[in-house]
Design goal:
alpha+beta; 3 helices; about 25% strand; rod-shaped
């Protein structure tokens, strides 16, 4: 009986420890961003009590504390109940976007002046340390989709107001086929930068 209780206790401990770790890694996107307000509140009410119960349980188990008397069995039962009851919320409120899956922010689709491509800017994992940008193009004749990495300083973006119809970039056609000049708009903090886009080479080069 005592071995069964100890086994259930250790199992509850591992479940709760997994929940805390999953919550921390998930809400910080593997430490690529800070916790938002909702995640912080959940962590205070469910994460911190979980950590305290985990530390207490590990300490008692290492010390060889055995629930040999009725009151000790009750105490361990309360610990087990606490560990298990706190875990579901920590598992549930984890946003895997920007970590296990990309969090993509885009502006409104536009079409190039030569009517060759639809295009927009895709910012991956905005407001995270691992954020980056790419140009999304879709051929109007073949429906082929092309994505070209852009070496633009998206980490400089502090705030971005997403509206119903807004543009972050403009593509200007040149005299060369499938070659465009990309201009960020004033909605980005680097509107004066320019990039030469070669669609065939799938290449973007910053213009000094």
């Amino acid at each position: 009986m005592l071995l069964l209780i100890r086994g259930v206790w250790i199992l509850a401990l591992l479940i709760n420890l997994s929940a805390v770790m999953w919550f921390i890694f998930g809400t910080t996107a593997n430490f690529q961003r800070g916790m938002d307000l909702v995640s912080t509140v959940i962590f205070v009410y469910f994460g911190i009590p979980s950590i305290l119960l985990i530390v207490l349980s590990i300490f008692l188990i290492i010390k060889g504390w055995i629930p040999s008397s009725p009151w000790r069995i009750v105490a361990v039962s309360i610990l087990i109940l606490g560990l298990l009851s706190l875990s579901p919320t920590l598992f549930k409120y984890v946003d895997t976007s920007g970590w296990l899956e990309e969090n993509v922010t885009t502006d409104t689709l536009q079409i190039t002046s030569d009517n060759a491509y639809e295009y927009n800017l895709e910012i991956i994992n905005l407001f995270q340390r691992n954020s980056y940008a790419r140009l999304h193009l879709k051929s109007t004749s073949t429906d082929e989709e092309i994505r070209i990495p852009l070496d633009i300083p998206v980490k400089e973006i502090v705030v971005l107001f997403e509206e119903k119809n807004y543009h972050l970039i403009f593509l200007k056609a040149t005299s060369e086929a499938d070659v465009y000049i990309l201009h960020p708009t004033s909605k980005l903090p680097f509107p004066n930068e320019k990039y030469k886009i070669d669609v065939k080479k799938k290449e973007a080069v910053k213009i000094p």
